[in-house]
Design goal:
mainly alpha
């Protein structure tokens, strides 16, 4: 693999690792704020859902059933599975678009090094 190709691969890996770290940080913040929802907001959510007895949200967020959707009552893996295909396609497309500027920067840096050596 050429040095330019190695730079592109390293830049792509850095972007993926950075995105993973950002997502991990956001997840940790959401877990920390899980108990910060006031009871008035939960009461408002219960009234907007029509007060159906099988979907009422408990006030203690620690006792929430995270395996079922709060709004529909369906299993969360089933809901995620329905949207996974399009999500992966969108991630792949965004990844391709994000790599284009990296390759262009690597090509430009090669010419910038040559031009700076000519001036010396």
């Amino acid at each position: 693999m050429s040095p330019e190709g190695k730079r592109v691969v390293i830049a792509a890996v850095r972007q993926v690792v950075f995105a993973g770290l950002v997502l991990l940080g956001i997840w940790l913040v959401l877990i920390a704020l899980r108990g910060a929802i006031p009871e008035s907001v939960i009461e408002m959510m219960n009234t907007k859902m029509g007060g159906e007895p099988d979907i009422t949200i408990p006030y203690d967020s620690g006792s929430w059933d995270w395996t079922n959707s709060l709004w529909t009552g369906k299993p969360v893996p089933e809901l995620i599975g329905q949207r996974m295909g399009l999500t992966l396609q969108l991630i792949g497309l965004c990844g391709l678009f994000s790599l284009a500027p990296v390759q262009q920067r690597c090509r430009l840096s090669k010419y910038m090094v040559r031009d700076s050596q000519k001036k010396l």
